Amino acid sequence: MEKIQHLYWRAGFGLSPREWKAKQNLNLQQAVDELFREAGADWPVEAPPPPSERPARGMSEEQKKQLQEQERESLSQVRKDWLKRMASPRHSALMERMSLFWHGHFACQTFSGTLAFQQLRTIRKYAFGKFGDLVLAIARDPAMIRFLNNQQNHKDKPNENFARELMELFTIGRGHYTEQDIKEAARAFTGWSSNLQGIYTFRPQVHDYGSKTFFGQSGAFDGTDIIAMILEKRETAQFITRKVYRYFVNEKVDEALVEDLSRRFYDSDYDIGQLMRTIFESDWFYAPHNIGVKIKSPVELVAGIMRTLDVRFIDDKALVFLQRALGQVLYHPPNVAGWAGGKTWIDNATLMMRLNLVGYLFQLSEFNFRVKDEPEAAMGGKALRRIDATVDLEPLMQLLEGVPPEHYSERFASYLLQARPQLSTSLLNGYTSHNSNWDYARTLAMRLMSLPEYQMC
Amino acid sequence: MKRRAFIKTSALATTSLFLPSFLPASIGGPLRGSRFGKILVVIQLSGGNDGLNTIVPYRNDIYYQNRPRLGLPASEVLRVSDELGFNPGLQALRELYDEGLVSILSSVGYPNPDRSHFRSMDIWHTGSGSADYWSTGWLGRYLDSECEGCANPYHALELDDSLSLALKGYEHSGFAMGKPEQLKRTADNRFLKAVEEASRGHEQEEQVAYLYKVMANTHSSADYLYAQSKVKQSRVTFPITPFGQGLKQVAELITADTATRVYYISLTGFDTHVNQKGRQERLLKEYAEGVKALVTDLKQNGLLEDTLILTFSEFGRRVKQNASNGTDHGTANNVFLLGGSLHKPGFFNPAPNLLDLDEGDLKYQIDFRNIYATILDKWLEADAKGILQGRYEGLPII
């Protein structure tokens, strides 16, 4: 069960108490198969409400402002919906997890809910397919085109932003191309643009049809050719595999394993699903030194808490507020390099917020935290002073059926913690309620979820 | 057991700042320097302050042509030279200027400026070029540089509930504190303190050990900063705004000889696309009066020579006003330095040239990293080249 739990923390967002019980009799292979079966089912994702008017030329300032406001609202909805899906046992955990990985990889900021949702749908479509198809789809994604200024990439005045990030961050990594390669690649992507409605458009009049020299080969390449040529290099498979390994397995890289995985990835024509299956089906993935050694990202932490306690926020704004306060706002990574992860999630303020979060939900400590204002926000700030939520402890309590109270802490620790604390039960007992078995269990769960070890997965 | 337990949580806003009234007065004490060396206070004006309506070229026709309704009339500005005057909101700053405590650097920016708030703020925070994406801040890397005393977590303190990128390093990060009482309350968790104690001496996995270290630091820092916040009580009147009270906190911590060398605080709301005039003036007034109070307090305590106050904004605004009596995102901007150790008070360099624009925006004359380099090198005595990952010529400013 420890292994299945590890699998679900890395391939998903942990297990709800009910899921934990239900998977007791599965073997590892069955659990992996189930994850991939769920991810393969084409589950519809609800789009945010469309703006009342479509963007058009000649809109008044007033109309434009209203539209921006609606897009901002709709983006907020996308952020809430996605976090809820991550937390919900009724959605494919692996699909949500994999799209979160790709969102961090193809890091993109947008202020439009329509564009964010469109990109997310693209990511979901290719999340387990061929990496080359995913890259091509991202190169034609309007949110990305706008973020990296490719609509300003014209044959007379090339803009290298997209071409540079494509190579440096999205595919092959630094050190495997020249500045000249970037310039030539930029020419190949000229005219890959998006229209006012946020739909991909190729503009032949600004595309450079001339000959380019890229990676030492010459021809009238366009963007599709460039991507294919980048993928021909084994370094691209190595770069992506390494990133996948650091994200799903361990920040400390086992070079031999990554080398082997990247060779297979390359030989499979960059089959993402196959790469992920290989990882989750390998014995080394379940080695003790790979378990409980990753600091949960803010959305992983919140999704995990929501899943465990079946948290329902009375006001959904809390879902965006928590992303902000803890430092991971969906569709707002710090920059095109994505979230740096690991220790960078942690400073004194975010750590205290993390450690106290479950306490807030159990109403044992006061909630008191202001997030920094958005620069666009008018005066007055957006401090959220209340988090109203309900939690359902019943499923959690069912894990204790047949367990005598003196073993409650072990049972909960094995369900709640991926990293084992060096704590005596007597210390825990000094900070728990003993009014009833229920109270004891409730306070015990809260204490365990406030430990630094709960931050790990 | 109950069928379903509903636990409702609701917590309320901060209680008012509590300060005892029996504290010893510091006024009239002997003049002395800071025990911990030079102190840097960074003030961030968030949203992009309009520099041209801050320091106004009131004799420049091009200025008025570009801003037919937003240009401040010569009769309203606080004149400091034949060409330039301060925004009327800056009366308090002008008084400091007259005392020789202000140095104004014009047209500060960087090559290929970015007009996005987030991106440009990141560039100012990290000190990267506009094509590079760095994940650490210039002050965070200063903490990483093994400067003396840097390992203490409150060596760099941000007066806010959350920490800015500027103060995040690879190994070390600054410390965020909204209010000392609140920090103490948040950190006062008897259970976690007991857990921390029990963990001592045990072998831990690297990342877990890191979490425990930050937790332990937070506990001890919260106690220390809370105690320090009670040592002195400023007699000077600060604005009754979060920003003003934050500066008051800075003044009290500095005069209490707190082992903090860098303070960081923000004033937000400068994104004036619409009806800029009244709002900017109000914000600048809050800024100037806050800074004046801080300077007054430090002066009374003989600490002004040891303090340098740097004020910046992520960008200036377009020369031409927009149709909504506001201004849109621009590029280069002025930077203020305040303190008792300025090399060249007054205007460091000429006002921006409004005839030589880049697509309607000011061209930068001073790279902000030259200012950082000077401060790191001369003021904080740190390895500027290593921290900024490049050599930037120092400026004769301090």
Key structural traits:
A: 457 residues; mainly alpha; 21 helices; globular; B: 398 residues; alpha/beta; Alkaline Phosphatase, subunit A; nine-stranded mixed β-sheet; three-stranded antiparallel β-sheet; 11 helices; disordered N terminus
Following the backbone from N to C, one meets helices and strands of chain A in this order, namely HHHHHHHHHHEEEEHHHHHEHHEHHHH
Number of helices of chain A: 21
Q: List how many beta strands of chain B DSSP finds.
A: 14
User: How far do the termini of chain A sit from each other?
Assistant: 15 Å
Overall pLDDT level of chain A: 92
Largest sheet of chain B: 9 strands, mixed
Explain what this protein looks like in three dimensions.
The complex is a heterodimer of chains A (about 450) and B (about 400). Chain A is mostly helical and about 450 residues long. Mean pLDDT of chain A is about 90; it is low at about 375-380. Chain A has 21 helices and six strands. In chain A, strand 1 (about 190-195) and strand 2 (about 200) form a beta hairpin. Chain A starts with a helix and ends in an 8-residue tail after the last helix. Chain A is globular. Chain A has a domain at about 395-455. In chain A, strands 1-2 form a two-stranded antiparallel ribbon. In chain A, strands 3-4 form a two-stranded antiparallel sheet. In chain A, helix 19 (about 410-415) packs parallel to helix 21 (about 435-450). In chain B, strands 1, 5, 6, 7, 8, 9, 10, 11 and 14 form a nine-stranded mixed β-sheet that branches. Chain B is built from eleven helices and 14 strands. The N and C termini of chain B lie far apart (about 70 Å). Chain B has helices spanning about 60-65, 90-100, 115-125, 140-145, 180-185, 190-200, 205-230, 240-255, 275-300, 370-380, 385-390; strands spanning about 40-45, 55, 80, 85, 100-110, 155-160, 175, 260-270, 305-315, 335-340, 345, 355-360, 360, 365. Chain B is globular. In chain B, helix 2 packs across helix 9 (about 275-300) and helix 5 packs across helix 7. With about 400 residues, chain B is of the alpha/beta class. Chain B has one domain: Alkaline Phosphatase, subunit A (3-Layer(aba) Sandwich). Helix content of chain B is about 30%, strand content about 15%. Classes of the chains: A mainly alpha (about 450), B alpha/beta (about 400). Chains A and B meet through helix 17, strand 6 and helix 21 of A and helix 3, strand 7, helix 5, helix 6 and helix 7 of B.
